[in-house]
């Protein structure tokens, strides 16, 4: 167990004053501060996440159960990132092809259906 895990535990149980904990943390090197914060962030359990089936029936039940939130997030990213990559590549190609044709049209449609160009 890391030395700072014991200190953090003592602070959480109010065995040491919080002002002492702040001073202790500020005196740590930046790498150690980062390690303490990283361990604090991952020490909490990832909540269980359910991915629900959307539809019109009243019998919608979860199609997949993920053990942790991060597993669910990785699954979503693995499914969505390839689509976004294809979409952004297509968008860039379209933008490159029509650079010269791009114009801003601003006009008013008159009551009789004619258009009055503003510029």
In short:
The chain has helices at residues 3-12, 18-27, 30-43, 69-97, and strands at residues 49-52, 62-66, 107-109, 115-117. The protein is an alpha+beta fold.
Residue stretches low in confidence (pLDDT < 50, at least 5 long) are none
Mean pLDDT: 77
By DSSP (H or I, 4+ residues per run), the number of helices equals: 4
For the largest beta-sheet, the strand count, sense and barrel status come to: 2 strands, antiparallel
Approximately what portion of the residues adopt beta-strand conformation?
5-15%
End-to-end distance, in Å?
72 Å
Please give the share of residues in helix: 40-55%
Overall geometry: elongated
Radius of gyration from CA coordinates: 28 Å
Textual characterization of the structure:
This protein is of the alpha+beta class and 119 residues long. The chain has two domains: 3-43; 46-119, no CATH class. 53% of the residues lie in helices and 13% in strands. It contains four helices and four strands; from the N terminus they run αααββαββ. The protein has helices at 3-12, 18-27, 30-43, 69-97; strands spanning 49-52, 62-66, 107-109, 115-117. The strands form two sheets. Strands 1-2 form a two-stranded antiparallel sheet. The protein has a two-stranded antiparallel sheet with strand order 3-4. Strand 3 and strand 4 form a beta hairpin.
């Amino acid at each position: 167990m890391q030395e700072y895990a014991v200190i953090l535990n003592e602070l959480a149980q109010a065995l040491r004053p919080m002002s002492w904990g702040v001073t202790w943390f500020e005196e740590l090197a930046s790498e150690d501060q980062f390690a303490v914060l990283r361990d604090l962030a991952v020490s909490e359990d990832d909540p269980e996440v359910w991915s629900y089936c959307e539809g019109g029936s009243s019998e919608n039940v979860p199609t997949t159960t993920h053990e942790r939130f991060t597993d669910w997030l990785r699954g979503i990213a693995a499914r969505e990132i390839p689509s976004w990559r294809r979409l952004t590549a297509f968008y860039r190609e379209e933008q490159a092809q029509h650079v010269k044709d791009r114009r801003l049209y601003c006009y008013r449609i008159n009551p009789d259906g004619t258009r009055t160009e503003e510029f």
